[in-house]
């Protein structure tokens, strides 16, 4: 029993600590899929990437396949998670506040899965983990993906998630009977006393974090698009629409995922009062607008490629719309169009049918996977400028098992978190009924000390990030040489992380009692 008998009178703790047969059965099924993925990856490590469907470009294959497709997909899903949470705090969208934590958790898990997909794609992952931090060049979009997407973006999301859960952690620490979990909650809530000053500081820090995270999101996902969009020698990729297209599709698929998760949480934990129809209505309107924008991008992209594109570009476009990839392309179009119509008809009629919203969320995520496949593969198998024969790519059971195993692992992490922490913020998170009932008035000295600690941490972080960036850019040496200081990209990442740690410093520096 996790929560004391106060739980019987407090419906906020519904589902916390209760492990039933259905949950155990689901976890066992997910673990079986995860184990199968581990087995598939073990075959890839022992035998080599020949067990995958990936082959050399120009001799009949593609070097980027299903793993890269899901790198883009998982990182895309993460976009809507933290962006919606940030928008909730910036604009006070009350109907979406119950979804903030599940969106933040989705971001962290999705980014972690994206990083795992990158490692799965590497033939020698340990060597890649060593060389990328040592030699990454700022001139390459991979530098931005490594530092801003996988490291900076993930760490910023963790900081955001940590700070937003401190109030609830303090509540749980005061009410749990488990010594181990009490320690966990107290560590999470470290320095939180439940005073108005605590909540005011968190409001300030979350506001400024939201402001800084949103442009980081745009930059990170644009950088992911630049990996494809600035390769002028690869027909089908070289396009100014790749970066904005990646951002929009990321927002669509992420919003669809949040709708699916919110519906499941609402149903399983009986949170109909907390997660209302208006929450789904807001998400549906957002996804509907973004879907229209992305369909416009697709129309412009295909018209340009078919009307006056060079021969190689035209070949890729033909393969996508009426060749080897036509089935995936038109399925993508149909899924996006159906999702839009489902949401648009409900909007016109003023109705919010949750099942149809979930269906729209599923459709846009099917479209997202297929569209990422269409972006990644055709330009490798049919987009060579040299007179090579056309190739083909079909994922093998190894790649499919690894991807499914990652999805299962992420799902298990989500289910475990739901059982030890409220996925919907507690109503007792306000200072009017805070968990500890301590009322400390922050003195002017404490306020200045806090601001000084915050300012110094931020200054150190920014300074280290600038130094690391300049060193990674080979300032003082030639661009093709190794950086003057080894592991310069790590210095840059450390600076970025330290900058975000300043928000934690601002919240947890203790006040003086007067």
Write up what this structure looks like.
The chain is mainly α. It folds into two domains: 5-440, Formate dehydrogenase/DMSO reductase domain (Formate dehydrogenase/DMSO reductase fold, Up-down Bundle), CATH 1.20.1630.10; 441-514. It has 17 helices and no strands. It has helices at residues 21-47, 66-91, 100-121, 125-135, 141-164, 166-175, 179-188, 196-229, 242-268, 277-308, 311-322, 326-349, 354-376, 378-381, 397-420, 444-472, 488-508. Helix 5 (141-164) packs antiparallel against helix 8, helix 8 runs antiparallel to helix 17 and helix 12 runs antiparallel to helix 13. The protein is globular and about 70 Å long. The protein starts with 20 loop residues before the first helix and ends in a 6-residue tail after the last helix. The relative contact order is 0.16. Mean pLDDT is 84; it is low at 1-11 and 429-440.
Note the topology:
Blueprint: H1 21-47, H2 66-91, H3 100-121, H4 125-135, H5 141-164, H6 166-175, H7 179-188, H8 196-229, H9 242-268, H10 277-308, H11 311-322, H12 326-349, H13 354-376, H14 378-381, H15 397-420, H16 444-472, H17 488-508
Helix pairs in contact: 1-15, 2-3, 2-8, 2-9, 2-13, 3-5, 3-15, 5-8, 5-17, 6-7, 8-9, 8-17, 9-10, 9-13, 10-11, 10-12, 11-12, 12-13, 16-17
Keywords:
single chain, mainly alpha, Formate dehydrogenase/DMSO reductase fold, 2 domains, 17 helices, disordered N terminus
